[in-house]
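=== Structural record ===
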Amino acid sequence: MLEIWAHPETWLSLATLAAMEIVLGIDNIVFLTILAGKLPRERQPLARRLGLAAALGTRLGLLFAISWLMGLTADLFAVRGKGFSGRDLILGAGGLFLIAKATFEIHAKLEASHPEARGTGRAASFGAVLLQIALLDVVFSLDSVITAVGMARHVEVMVVAMVLAVGVMLVFAGAIGTFVERHPTVKMLALAFLILIGVMLLADAFDRHVPRGYVYFAMAFSLGVELLNLRVRRAPPAPVKLHKRWEGDPDARRAVKEQLRFDF
């Protein structure tokens, strides 16, 4: 197991995957914060910590389950001479899911409107909030795990990347959220990368393997160009304001501003 860490590609995939998990996980942190904001103030930190722990546990559980399913390499059926195994079905379904999810998120952030909602102002029970957080974690974990499967070849790398990402989000959620909010192109790039990973998974499902190195280079080059843009344009005009699903809820905006120290 330790020999995989002697290869530069392992460290490159770890860094790339951890960065993707962090950027894509900001929405998870914000939704978790909004749910925790329904509790009395003294119980909110505990709910956020338990929510992040549950998020990590859900991701790891799904990761091990999907990794086991991908070990099913025996053909289940054939279409026009091409056999499909359980692994092929997981890769194909995962690729389609990532492409659809990324397209939906891009539309939701650029086109969709979120009407003003009236806040209830009532505190929820601790158990009810934890249940909502657990259900939310399942939804957010699915694309995170499929992204990990698409970007890394070893389960050990996926596990380390997820643990690192959750740890960084726990400590630097506010700073990362503020950066992504001020530079929405970073979020759009991450969603575009999801489409790229989805296409790669679809190709793998049909035995058209794309070397990961090409994908890592394309993603690193694109991100490098954007970082140069941010550095050169020191006084840019106001960036595009991405829509948020919670922007019409006053209670949600207040919870994000107070707990994460940044204001959408």
About this structure: The mean pLDDT is 77. Strands lie at 75-79, 82-85.
